[in-house]
Structure formats: C-alpha cells, structure tokens
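I am still getting used to backbone structure tokens and would like to learn alongside you. Please make up or recall a protein chain and show it to me in full. Would you write everything just below, so we can both look at the same thing?
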Amino acid sequence: SERRGDKKIDRFSLILFDIRSSEIVGVNHSIIKTIQQYCQPNSSIKITGYSDRLGEAGYNQQLADARALAAAKALEVNNIKVEGIGQAQLYNSSLPEGRMYTRTVEVVIETPVE
C-alpha cells in the first residue's frame, strides 16, 4: 500500500496468463480473493489488461481487453474501470520471460482514507 493525499493505493498483478488466453486459472484465483479483501464500498478500482507482442496487434488488443474484463468479472465488486493496453512494453519482449510477464492484468485500488 501507498498513501497519496487522502487515498490509500493498493496495486496487484495477475500474472502468467496462458498464451492467447484470458482465463483466470491456478494461483490467480487466490490472488483475486486477496484483492477482494482490499476492496471497500467506497473504493475506486482500475483494471488494466496487457498482452505480449506476439501476433497481430488488433487481436492482442482484444486479448488485453478480455483479460481485464475477466478479472473484473472475477472480482465481483462495483466501481471498476476496465482498460486494455494491448501490446505493452512492460518487460523485454525479445525474451520469453519478458513476454510471459507481459501477459498480465494490473489492478489498482484507490480507497479514501479518513
């Protein structure tokens, strides 16, 4: 957590989506449960989906959108803004590890602090 003004900000990543998949599997289910514990009724949540650079840009954009939407659906909370970035350069995409870590969804929760 970090504090910015009158808000507490928590950041999470759901990593290791399978190639060409937006399905939340494995350890990501427990990460979703952890994220839910940080969500309050007055929290504002932003979910950003990403994809690696392999394949066609339009498809990767759709995949990033689908990953963000899948995470939003799994969270089952209100006040969610969803965005897909598509082929992001989060990590070195020339390496298999970089592409793996780029197949991710980032969740940012902003909660007002009294």
